[in-house]
UniProtKB/TrEMBL annotation:
Belongs to the small GTPase superfamily. Rab family. Signal peptide: none annotated. Keywords: GTP-binding, Lipoprotein, Nucleotide-binding. This is Uncharacterized protein. It comes from Caenorhabditis auriculariae. InterPro entries: P-loop_NTPase, Rab_GTPases_membrane_traffic, Small_GTP-bd, Small_GTPase. GO terms for molecular function: GTP binding; GTPase activity. It holds the Pfam family Ras.
Length: 277
């Protein structure tokens, strides 16, 4: 049986703002292709590829907190208190196999007295969900002013590229309680170039789709180059990688160190130890 010496070393997890993901991905890709025969681990997926921040707005009692609770916890609370100021939720979604995006979700108070607090949260959001209650006509009529406030306050490299979604909520309610037709919501959304969906935090209908639809759209705009992680803006951030282990021969290890030094030492190489295989 042949025996040869290998070197195991680890890439520590890092944040993209410390180290450029594309640089590291490029180095890692070329490394892996060069060292194919020595590759022993399968823990190469990132923890998440991107982080997107969304904000959820709309009149009080339309069901914003219930919708977010259902999306992040799989259930809605039986009794809900009005949100005071701003609340925060998070959930990971997989946009395609192995491609994860972390969603950070700001839940805002619909009550007028909190308006000045919630207004400051638009700037660092890349996605805005405007919610109305399909059984409450006034909440639909106020959607235009919520949308305008969001459009005036979102930030990022190109605020016009932020993604807006209109959500008609409480779709579980009986038809006789409905005060806003599906077609009216759809028309409003089309007119304002928004996505549209009806949801329920009682049955869970379309809850997951509402958020993933918006995440997919943000991701498409990131891919097209319209949106990107930008210093001083929290709407889109690059992801975090896992700790990774690769097993290399001594010769490959020496080559890597040489390349690593030529690249200005971008890849942290630690935990060098000898291993017999
Ligand atoms: N039938 C039905 N009721 C819902 C649904 N979602 C929420 N509710 C009810 O609507 C009421 C208000 O829900 P919240 O989630 O607190 O509303 P909110 O928009 O967060 O209100 P604020 O925090 O004051 O802005 C509660 O009584 C919920 O139980 C739903 O999908 N269907
Ligand atoms: Mg609330």
């Amino acid at each position: 049986m042949s025996r040869h010496q290998t070197t195991v070393f680890t890439f520590f997890p890092f944040q993209n703002n410390c180290l450029n993901v594309s640089t590291v991905s490029g180095i890692r890709a070329s490394l892996i292709s060069k060292m194919e025969t020595n590759f022993i681990g399968d823990d190469y997926g990132p923890l998440f590829n991107y982080l997107f921040r969304f904000i959820v707005i709309g009149d009080s009692t339309v069901g914003k907190s219930s919708l977010l609770k259902y999306f992040t916890e799989g259930k809605s609370a039986e009794i809900t208190d009005p949100t005071v100021g701003v609340d925060f939720y998070a959930r990971m979604v997989e946009l395609k196999p192995g491609y994860r995006v972390k969603l950070q979700l700001w839940d805002t108070a619909g009550q007028e007295k909190f308006r000045s607090i919630t207004r400051s949260y638009y700037r660092n959001s890349v996605g805005v969900m405007v919610i109305y209650d399909i059984t409450n006509r006034a909440s639909f009529e106020h959607a235009a002013s919520w949308l305008k406030e969001a459009q005036d306050n979102v930030g990022g490299p190109d605020p016009s590229k932020c993604v807006f979604t209109l959500v008609g909520h409480k779709s579980d309610c009986p038809e006789e309680q409905r005060r806003v037709n599906y077609e009216e919501g759809e028309y409003f959304a089309k007119y304002h170039k928004m996505k549209f969906i009806e949801t329920s935090a009682i049955t869970g209908d379309n809850v997951f789709d509402a958020f993933t639809m918006m995440a997919q759209e943000v991701h498409a705009r990131v891919n097209e180059g319209h949106l990107r992680p930008t210093e001083g803006w929290e709407g889109v951030k690059s992801g975090i990688m896992r700790t990774q282990s690769i097993c290399l021969s001594e010769q490959d290890f020496q080559n890597l160190v040489k390349n690593h030094n030529q690249l200005g030492g971008a890849v942290p190489v630690v935990n060098k130890k000898k291993k017999r295989v």
